[in-house]
């Protein structure tokens, strides 16, 4: 898209007012920041990205330098800041980047950061949230142009500050914002001698809709009823003709233009397909929006990698289309909060939090990004329940243990909100380590301690998690809950499967001192490695290629733990039983009021009420598990060619009892598991990270009492297990134990 | 109800088989156990009831004595045991109370307890749950008589083991069970020289329905369509004639018999009234059932107080009818668990848990019972997340701080389940302090420490919480969530009000070191005391007498903090504005995207989006709070005759920020609050308990870090504040600080 002449003129003028870029040519330049699939690189050297959120529009200018020094003392090498549209365009068309006592002085801030030797992650919105009024948008936008608001399926706005990302008028206004902010940022990128190393488009995309329980159905943006509208175009591309769509949806539409949106909720096949298509379409518009913003940045001369932050561990499934659209010079990261207000499910970094962080970081790794937590709690939006320094440190270390390669404390420090722009308060410091007045709080010591740990093990930046088994996941599954609301006629929905992956399989594995990593069932990457077993957590729907891939893997000697069902359809819910056919097996739901199972000699294993008995056993299969009351066969083992093996367990569970861990261990043991770590205490989770001949074992205790564990491990550079002795892990602590 | 001759004969025969009661006449008798509204009494002396759940059908008989001694060493004076119907009547009509390797030897167990000097709380069901198959009912019951199953509003069973409490066939079978178990229990009551001090009817009543998201709509039990059926009778009694009902419900029924049940969910006035009537009716059947069971026990000669355990803090609102029906020799208690499986909202005794416990214990006190926790975690149903000894101790002490006068560790010890009766496992010990094999775990030390604390301060049994303000509650409000599912045309539903009471007002008060107690707005008891202010958390519906009572209180010099709305109807949702009329005020909902308020000089107070502006100020009222952006008046103060005062705050909130506490303190300060305790740290909650000239201050830290606080208090026996100095409360600890 070309910038029109008039806008260019405006931009040039504005640039001239603020600074003459040429005058800066003698600035000392900062080493370039790059990344690969393993880690961030500064001047080519592997390095952690240790950032702190630091808002020029809040922190008093007189204290910028001192607080930046404090961040560096805590091991920081970057700061992140939102650049709020609403602040800089308070009246439509009037852009201000100076005045108001310094709170608008973006450029001086960027220059101060450069002088301090801190990289900057610039986050110019349009949305920034940040507890600002209108979530950082200008007040005039939704007030004067209510037509840009996102709509629910009934065509009504559902939240006062939720806009439709691809509404033409919103894009027009947003582009003008980027035309003014972009060139300023461009002048300060590292390549131009400035401090900006990364630039983020928007914030926690899709959140402004899904948090309010809707997708966006704004008719003008989505183009319902218009032949060239986005939605009819999408459907036409997907189905070719309306007959194809009607056949898939079980509907009788006369044309693509005749289709109006519906809320998800159906549980019949046609309704589910329709809801899934709607979701895929919506997420496509999110990707289009993100790519548009990134394109504008490029046009404005911003050459840094583009980044984005998922609003939470489970949200990144919403960005598959976006990651494709943004291509190579893009990094998706995630926000990992554990403490909001008292209504949050947990207010401390519990194991449940750590498990979600583990999956999140693994997903980012699989996407090919250095796993980065763009918002890690550097405070809390609520004073109460309080953020506790030792909790925060445990959170940082647990993330490090599970593969975090970069992080950004949200916030590192705070200050007064711009006048009448604070959504929650006049003084905003998020209970940060450095308070609004610049005062130092206990949380800062935790940040400092974490920084020290990173500095003393710089090789960790390149380290990888040692693993003894892999869990194959379909990243798309994590968004099934947005369309697959109830199980319907299926045995096990993808939403249920995703929950079982987290609360069942992975939790049991970690409690059993198994060391899983994730692998992407959509790719071929994992199939060549047949040394470690692969766990496949199926649902009733598994994409065709994935079923085929599992079959090939088994057929060429791979070892698979398959559970809890045999897929019956492909990802579009069309019959597809490649995997079941290959195995020659059939299952059906096993209703039992006393869901207790014995598997591989482990007795009293509780399902969460979902069990499947095998009604056709594969030829040559050996039964290895049955219902304790009815003796129905629930688990079996089958040899496949070339030394392969599959072990099928027909049950799902919520990890709650020691037996769950024992079962997972026994099943993987049958498939040749050679454990990387052995830890005697199921309440202590471990992660062994290795780079070359160096290893560090993280022992994770997220409970309120010290725990003892006898630990040994077998890093890949060692030909024998290394005893680490009996260790005491203090309460709510992640211990780092040197190996060798 | 009379026992028929044939049944009597059976009972007598059975008694003869087992024991001859006369032979026991030389047994040393145990002191009688009684209670009053303050505490339990043993031989007339105030005493804590310190019980441990101890199942004769699980714990190996050979180890009974030793484990009972362990309980006594831990300060225990009682044990509780279920007496599972399913165990003792495995085949219909065949009652067994001996054999099977001792697991049926109820009487020997009762005798052993007596010899050990431990009282027994007998819990003969019919339901016991206890992770037994069929929740402790006989397998044959629901298998052979499926008609006794509870039905949902569509007339279908909704859970395999949920029966209809008042189904005639179920009652017939249950009565036969009581006819066999009752006489055995009767022989062993304290009055007969035995150990049974208390007898519980059923278990966590109503849970077996509401946990599965339904009331019971079994047509035969409820009598839909039959003139003399329970439901038509109830409605006739409530409304007199069908016209009255139709007018209330906004329906057009031709007769009471024509009315079929509906699921709650309506939000129109008529639908809400219908749903509320349905709930009240259902809870009446629960009460009828409990009273029937209690009556049977009396008929069988069981003379002990009857007890029952609410399934959790919020459930006791379901027992208002039951408490009335069971009358004087009855004690309602509650179960207080904080750790289930990983899907529980919290796995540690967080402040949210403690707040619920506080309200629960206060409610029991208001009902006139010695607040008793009939199941306090003596373990956990799940191995993981683990139950941690220090967490458990903090839980016990927090309950003590908030007024617990008796408790029962569930479970104190465990053992093998009866063959094929374990629902979850063969070996059941609930991770208890004393394991299934008799092994001693760290949790036992916590129990012992708690026992020591009780022994060293026996006067605490009679102590009361010192308070400086009262919060008037309508206990019925806590069940509004069962019928008032969405707000509808009302400003603020009773369900919302109940949530606001917990997460807003009370949490803010405790964080602000205000010392509230609850008072019952339905009674006159609180109105005479005008020394301390009363907080009234209203909803759109407030019962007529309550409105009148608040008016009288104000009119005679009482001081009231009223929030967040002025009631518009009575409890039956009929227009009733007694309170608003007295005040001469009118409010309306104040929609504001930036819900920030200044009240009494406290700035930046966040509502949770619900604010009401005053559109008619009372004559002579002084505005004391307004919206920070629009300046709309949200709060005002009015003097009433005889030195009374009312302060109205038109907003609700979730306690999250220090400002919430400051506001509550400022508002109560205006109403003459004289603080009992002053604590400098808002994260430390306190409870000052006094008996005569003795006081103990509990300082509660339920976070993962030590907290410091400067504390002083003013017990009622002192004419000045007593400085307790700067105290450090260790992480996850409730400290007991001696006063004076």
Walk me through the structure:
- Two copies of one chain form a homodimer.
- The first copy, chain A, is α/β, with parallel strands linked by helices.
- Chain A has three domains: 41-210 and 279-462, Glycosidases (TIM Barrel); 469-675, Rossmann fold (3-Layer(aba) Sandwich); 679-738, Immunoglobulin-like.
- Helices cover 30% and strands 21% of the residues of chain A.
- Chain A has a nine-stranded mixed β-sheet, sandwiched between helices.
- In chain A, α16 (494-511) packs across α19.
- Chain A is globular and about 80 Å long.
- The relative contact order of chain A is 0.09.
- Residues 1-22 of chain A have low confidence and may be disordered.
Brief descriptors of the model:
homodimer; 740 residues; alpha/beta; TIM Barrel; Rossmann fold; Immunoglobulin-like; 9-stranded mixed sheet; 8-stranded parallel barrel; 19 helices; globular
List the helices and strands and how they pair.
The structure is a homodimer of 740-residue chains.
Chain A: H1 5-18, E1 33-35, E2 40-42, E3 45-47, E4 49-53, H2 64-73, E5 78-82, H3 85-88, H4 106-116, E6 119-123, H5 139-144, H6 168-187, E7 196-200, H7 207-210, H8 219-222, H9 230-239, H10 242-249, H11 269-299, E8 306-310, H12 320-326, E9 330-335, H13 351-367, E10 372-377, H14 389-401, E11 406-410, E12 415-416, E13 427-428, H15 442-456, E14 464-465, E15 469-473, H16 494-511, E16 516-520, E17 534-537, H17 544-555, E18 559-563, H18 578-583, E19 586-589, E20 596-599, E21 602-606, E22 612-616, E23 622-627, E24 633-640, E25 644-649, H19 658-670, E26 677-679, E27 685-691, E28 694-701, E29 707-713, E30 722-729, E31 733-738
Parallel strand pairs in A: 4-5, 4-11, 5-6, 6-7, 7-8, 8-9, 9-10, 10-11, 15-16, 15-17, 17-18, 18-25
Antiparallel strand pairs in A: 1-2, 2-3, 12-13, 14-27, 19-22, 20-21, 20-23, 23-24, 24-25, 26-29, 27-28, 28-31, 29-30
Helix pairs in contact in A: 1-6, 2-4, 9-10, 11-12, 13-16, 14-15, 16-19
């Amino acid at each position: 898209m070309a910038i029109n002449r008039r806008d260019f003129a405006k931009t040039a003028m504005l640039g001239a007012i603020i600074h003459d870029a040429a005058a800066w040519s003698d600035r000392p330049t900062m080493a370039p920041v790059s990344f690969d699939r393993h880690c961030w690189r500064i001047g080519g050297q592997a390095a952690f990205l240790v950032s702190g959120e630091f808002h020029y529009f809040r922190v008093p200018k007189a204290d910028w330098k001192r607080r930046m020094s404090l961040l560096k003392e805590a091991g920081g090498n970057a700061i992140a800041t939102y650049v709020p549209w609403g602040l800089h365009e308070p009246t439509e068309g009037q852009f201000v980047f100076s005045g108001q006592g310094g709170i608008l002085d973006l450029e001086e801030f960027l220059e101060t950061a450069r002088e301090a030797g801190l990289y900057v992650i610039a986050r110019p919105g349009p949305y920034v949230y940040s507890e600002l009024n209108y979530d950082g948008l200008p007040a005039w936008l939704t007030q004067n142009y209510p037509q840009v608001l996102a709509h629910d399926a009934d065509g009504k706005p559902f939240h006062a500050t939720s806009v439709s990302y691809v509404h033409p008028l919103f894009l027009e206004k947003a582009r003008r914002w980027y035309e003014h902010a972009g060139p300023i940022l461009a002048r300060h990128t590292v390549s131009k001698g400035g401090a900006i190393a990364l630039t983020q488009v928007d914030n926690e995309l899709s959140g402004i809709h899904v948090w309010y329980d809707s997708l966006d159905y704004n008719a003008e943006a989505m183009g319902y009823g218009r032949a060239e509208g986005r939605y009819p175009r999408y459907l036409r591309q997907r189905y070719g003709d309306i007959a194809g769509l009607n056949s898939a949806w079980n509907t009788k539409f006369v044309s693509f233009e005749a289709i109006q949106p519906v809320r998800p909720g159906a549980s019949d096949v046609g309704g589910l397909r329709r809801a899934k298509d709607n979701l895929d379409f919506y997420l496509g518009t999110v990707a289009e929006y993100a790519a548009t913003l990134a394109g504008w940045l490029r046009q404005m001369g911003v050459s840094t990698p583009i980044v984005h932050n998922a609003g939470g561990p489970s949200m990144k499934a919403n960005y598959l289309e976006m990651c494709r659209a943004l291509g190579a010079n893009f990094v998706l990261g995630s926000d990992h909060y554990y403490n909001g207000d008292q209504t949050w499910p947990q207010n401390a970094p519990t194991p449940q939090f750590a498990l979600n962080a583990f999956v999140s970081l693994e997903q980012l790794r699989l996407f090919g990004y250095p796993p980065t937590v763009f918002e890690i709690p550097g405070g809390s939006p609520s004073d109460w329940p309080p953020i506790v320094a030792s909790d925060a440190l445990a959170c940082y270390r647990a993330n490090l243990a599970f593969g975090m390669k970069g992080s950004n404390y949200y916030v590192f420090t705070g200050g007064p909100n711009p006048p009448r722009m604070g959504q929650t308060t006049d003084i905003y410091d998020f209970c940060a380590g450095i308070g609004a007045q610049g005062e130092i709080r206990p949380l800062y010591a935790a940040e400092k301690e974490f920084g020290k740990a990173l500095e003393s093990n710089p090789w960790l930046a390149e380290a990888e998690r040692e693993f003894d088994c892999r869990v194959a996941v379909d990243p798309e599954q994590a968004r099934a809950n947005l369309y697959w609301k109830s199980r319907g006629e299926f045995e096990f929905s993808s939403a249920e499967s995703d929950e079982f992956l987290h609360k069942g399989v992975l939790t049991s594995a970690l409690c059993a001192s198994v060391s899983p990593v994730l692998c992407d069932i959509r790719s071929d990457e994992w199939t060549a490695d047949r040394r470690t077993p692969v766990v496949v957590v199926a649902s009733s729907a598994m994409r065709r290629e994935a079923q085929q891939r599992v079959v090939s893997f088994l057929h060429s000697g791979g070892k698979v733990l398959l559970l809890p069902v045999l897929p019956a359809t492909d990802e579009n819910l069309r019959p597809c039983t490649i995997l079941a056919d290959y195995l020659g097996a059939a299952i059906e739901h096993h209703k039992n009021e006393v869901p207790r199972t014995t598997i591989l000699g482990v007795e009293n294993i509780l399902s969460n009420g979902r069990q499947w008995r095998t009604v056709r056993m594969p030829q040559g299969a050996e039964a290895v598990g049955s219902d304790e009351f009815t003796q129905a066969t629930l688990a079996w083992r089958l040899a496949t060619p070339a030394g392969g093996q599959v072990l099928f367990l027909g049950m799902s569970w919520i990890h709650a009892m020691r037996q769950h861990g024992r079962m997972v261990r026994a099943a993987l043991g049958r498939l040749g598991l050679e454990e990387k770590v052995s830890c005697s205490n199921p309440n202590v989770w471990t992660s062994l990270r290795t780079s070359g001949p160096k290893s560090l074992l993280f022992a994770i205790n997220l409970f309120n009492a010290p725990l003892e564990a006898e630990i040994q491990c077998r890093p890949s550079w060692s030909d024998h297990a290394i005893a680490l002795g009996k260790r005491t892990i203090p309460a709510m602590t992640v211990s780092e134990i040197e190996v060798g």
